[in-house]
Amino acid sequence: MARTARGARILITGAAGGMGWMYAERAVDEGAASVVLWDRDAPTLARAADELGSRSRGRTDVRSYAVDVSELGAIAKTAHKVRRDVGNPDILVNNAGIVRGNRFFWETDAGDDVRPTMLVNALAPMYVAREFLPAMIASGRPARVVNIGSAAGTLANPRMAVYAASKAALNGWSDSLRLELRQAGHAHVTVTTVTPSYVSTGMFHGARGPLLAPVLEPEVVVDRVWRAMLDGRPLVELPASVRLSRALRALLPTRVFDRVVGDGFGVYRSMEAFRGRD
């Protein structure tokens, strides 16, 4: 794929704000042929689409579709509309996500916490990708899938058990999908898995960055992810200490890791003051 998104058709979930909006902004600025925005917040989504449309000055076809990706049936219906209106995307960014934290697992509510977290973070990206992958494969053109996972999916953390589980599922599926595409001979479709630590978008408001893992600025994350996606790189770990933590987790006995990294670096206390979005 080219070093920019010029001429590409791009679909981004969770695109009404935060990093989803920033990916869309980047796509418009690079001259994408079309940018399709998915989000459940219809009023904010409409404003985002209007602003991006004005920004593109007619160069990019900006479309918005209000859809709650936790409703798996709605994904198929909305994907059908996208294919009818715009065509199949060349680039899919599975960005939508939710976090419920600062409670122990036995204090969480199965209906309000567990189910929606697993639906949005783990199942929805699979369902969205399944809608568009067949055409990506059949086209023979360079295509990209970006799945926004989390460092929480590689390193367990108290007070976010369900979120960590959902992102572990996403991380595992995403990398397996990458390998399946390669094994099946579809090298023109690449998958990039992103595992950042806390990002200052408001989603993790109140969370504290542990030692060696400061809270990340969203602009930095978006830039790194975007460049990796265009290059077809398989994994983006931010900051570098995420990779170090994985290595230490594999090398150290569990109790030693808990004391040195979990407690000593402050990882296991990082969610104690979490409040999330207002």
UniProtKB/TrEMBL annotation:
InterPro entries: NAD(P)-bd_dom_sf, Sc_DH/Rdtase_CS, SDR_fam. Belongs to the short-chain dehydrogenases/reductases (SDR) family. The keyword Oxidoreductase applies. This is NAD(P)-dependent dehydrogenase (Short-subunit alcohol dehydrogenase family). Pfam families: adh_short. GO terms for molecular function: oxidoreductase activity, acting on the CH-OH group of donors, NAD or NADP as acceptor. The keyword Transmembrane does not apply. It comes from the Bacteria. It comes from Agromyces flavus. Keywords: Oxidoreductase.
